[in-house]
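Q: Give me the 3D complex with beta-D-galactopyranose.
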Amino acid sequence: MDFDRIHYGADYNPEHWPEDVWDEDVKLMAEAGVTLVSVGIFSWAQVEPRPGEFDFGWFDQVMDKLAAGGVSACLSTMTASPPPWLSHRHPEILPVRADGTRLSPGARQQFCPSSLVFREHAARLVEQVATRYAGHPALALWHVGNEYGCHIRACYCDESAADFRRWLKDRYGDIDALNRAWTTTFWSQRYDDWAEILPPRVAPTFPNPAQQLDFHRFSSDASLGSFLAEQEVLRRITPDVPLTTNFVGLVQKALDWNRWVPHEDVVSLDSYPDPYDPRSHVEVALAYDLVRSLKDGQSWMLLEQAPSAVNWRNRNSPKPPGAMRLGSWQAVAQGADAILFFQWRQSRGGAEKFHSAMVPHGGPETRGYRDVRSLGQELAALPRLAGTRVRADVALLHDWESWWGLELDSHPSGDLQQLDAHLAHYAPLFDAGITCDVVHPARDLSSYKLVVVPNLYLMGEAVAANLRAYVAAGGHLLVSFFSGIVDACDRAYLGGYPAPLRDLLGLRIDEFWPLPEDGETGLRFADGSQAAGTIWSEWIELEGAEAVADFEGGELDGRAAITRHTFGKGVAWYLGSRPDAAGMRALMDRVAADAGARPVLPGLPDGVQAIVRHGDGESFLFLLNHGTGEVTVPLPASAADLLTAPATPVDHITLGPRGVAVVSVD
Ligand code: GAL
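A: Here is the predicted complex, encoded as structure tokens.
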């Protein structure tokens, strides 16, 4: 993908409209600065109205008009919603829930990820699409499927069961190894034959946790298999055309993105923050840092966001003036080189008619269209931003397998959820203006000054060794509770929690002491300051670490709650409870300062995000005011805001409500 500028555009669904609208579309696209559209995502039933009968004539016209208008196509493989004739002839492709309910057609994504019939029909269509449009001047990028795992996170049908057994045979080789991995001595679950194994369908009580964990892994791989079946066709026919598939944001955990990314040329994400939530930009920031880190900071694409309201929450607020622009610049600031919306023109009918679009029902004479047009002009004016890179001193560790493991049933506390844990640790860094990568725990961490582990319940020995080596060499590490508890088969490590990290942290957990619903415990720091601990407490025995804070009150009164341990040339902090937001911020400021991880700018006003994209000769400081009041930000050196381009450089920038500035810095 050629990122010689920040691309701008939307999902484009021309089949919703008569042909004469297509000309107006391309004209308005040019006016709005649109350079790239995702086209054909839901076109299968239109291009293959009957099995094996293809009608691409209308789509040729669309592609030709786009090319003539200077708009590139992120061309879809068109397989996201199989046509009714396919499930009518082959009802076995329809996905089945854990309770045995087979889902009906009539919405979208109605296919079992393991279905060979689906894959065969999809591959036949992709072959047609790729052959027909290979070399077309509009074709810039392939868009494979759409949001895999969005509606169908897993399928429990018989074909999936057979595929699961195949996957398990590959993983374990023989049935005894599987029995050991799944601890099937428990509750008389020993398997004598592969044929006895099923997906974890609804059972009388908790299904085997290792089976559930493997089913998560398998389900992600089954969707990946479906993606690869299409990807292989594209690679064969158009080896030089890059491809992507759009990940659903961190709202769900179906896919292990790390296993997908090696098969994509560019990573892309869909993002739908809730305008009612004044802190939604923080959650979004976490997802952007994660998606950027997946390919070591390469350009990524925001492939979908809403220009204003969505239609799928219970109550759907429009984005207030300035919010769409601010959210778009936030993605650019965090490394995106493409900003696209769902969708170009608001649908008249269908389930998404109340979802906003670049061209609303009211047409171009609307606030919505005027705002997207002016953002398009702004982005077009700064092509030199494209290809510059974000650098971070801090990494937050994220692993899908551990996320799946953490949120299994029958744990000490159901209150401990991965995204809450991430946000509790990420938000204080974000608020302090400290740039963060979000990376896999097995990767080389040596470039980071501080590594934060909000939770890694599941931790292989290799990851523990990685963390140990990182700290021994001088790194600073912060680990929160219930990390390093089980191995890859969800079996507890023996010898005192968290056994793989005990020497590194200099402590041993004797027993978990989760707090009651909405319960709190006191935390008293050595300097006399106090905070409330939430979610969790635990009985810690110190084995070399010093207590930074003790529990105050309750059964654990006076025992260590937060600790610091020197290990090799580095330092390992441990949190046996989650301080409230103010306590977490104070602690994180101290830990970051200790590690030498500095904010992008000191003394940032509340609500202002600051981040730098580094280029070869020129770097850019982005200032984003997520608040609704005016703020003034002092600049490190006099400079001009590239968006408003004042005649003389200034030494501070005043940002209005939801204001944005981009400043060139050395
Ligand atoms: C996405 C999806 C789009 C559209 C959008 C609406 O999940 O990929 O096709 O449905 O949501 O917000």
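A quick observation: The domain at 394-595 is CATH 3.40.50.880 (Rossmann fold).
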